[in-house]
Amino acid sequence: MRKLIGVFCLFTASTAFAWGPTGHRAVGEIASRFLSIETMSKVHQILDGQSLAKVSTWPDEIKSDPTNYSHTYNWHYTTWQSTAHTHSHEHENDESGYLLKSVKEQVEILKNSQATKAQKAFAIKFIVHLIGDAHMPFHVGNGNDRGGNYCKVTFHSKAFNLHALWDEGMIDFNGLSFTEFAKFIREGKTLSDIQKARQGEMLDWVKESKDILPSLYPEGAAEYCAQNAPAEKLPKLGYEYSYKFMPVIEQRIFEAGVRLALVLNDSLK
Questions:
Q1: CB 77 within 8 A of CB 213
Q2: Residue 1 has pLDDT above 90, yes or no
Q3: 4 pLDDT higher than 50
Q4: Alpha-carbon distance values, 133 to 19, 23, 90, 257 (Å)
């Protein structure tokens, strides 16, 4: 039990990360495959040659600099109550998070011919990251458990919360680099898969995450999502859980990459 408590403490600090470095970089890597030549050239110029994969983690890295960037901390998520039928950037506030509003604002900057190169670089970095966040179901929270951070489980006998398990735990268990992960995700995808992924807009993509979210909780959430849940109440997850849900993770990352390219192609045309 002492070991479990120690690992829980490690994960409570990463309460707003999504996908982790491998997942975010895979989104950027996949998106780069679907950029037009013109967009690729503009992105290369604005980012001084940095790739989408490289800048994809920057919005998480700057959480170490609250003096300059604390105003961005609640851009990474949006709360869409399970009982609410509609949602939009106009429903967002400090408590719910500003994921929809932030993407909208950064896209507007990218489309603005008067915006500076520095402003556009900032916008691209956040668009890359936030579209990835939008496709991680626990970043479209139900408002009850801090995006799964209160829900303690074990995965192959290691302690996690559900948010951490989804952002990094299951992905890192595979031992793949982000380039390998992105390549494996793309394998077998057809033109029909790509066209289907390109459908909809930001609110539709967020709703997909909202609709997926309830299925990700093992039975007994009222017990293991409670404060000070005893060790015997924690779901013991392993191969069966990852076998069921790794395809969901891979699909969401694929869709995020294709859609990120769609947004950048439109914003930089």
A1: no
A2: no
A3: no
A4: 7, 10, 19, 11
* C-alpha–C-alpha distance, residues 153 and 132, integer Å: 24
Residue 87 φ/ψ region, left for φ over 0, alpha for ψ in the -120 to 50 degree band, beta for the rest: beta
25-79 pLDDT, tens per residue? Answer: 999 999 999 999 999 999 999 999 999 999 999 999 999 999 999 999 999 999 9
The domain 19-145+177-226+251-267 is classified under which CATH number: 3.40.50.300, 1.10.575.10, 2.160.10.10, 2.60.120.260?
1.10.575.10
Examine the pLDDT at 13 and tell me if it is beyond 70: no
Amino acid in the structure at residue 162: L
pLDDT digits (tens, 9 = 90+) for 200-213: 999 999 999 999 99
**Cβ atoms of 172 and 157 closer than 8 Å:** no
Quick one: pLDDT at residue 3? 39
| Spatial CB neighbours of 30, under 8 Å, sequence gap ≥ 6 | 182, 185, 186, 253, 254, 256, 257, 258, 260, 261
C-alpha span between 215 and 213 (Å, rounded): 6
Instruction: Using the structure block, give the residue that is written with the tokens 């680099």.
Output: 177
Handedness of CA 97, 103, 106, 108 (dihedral sign): negative
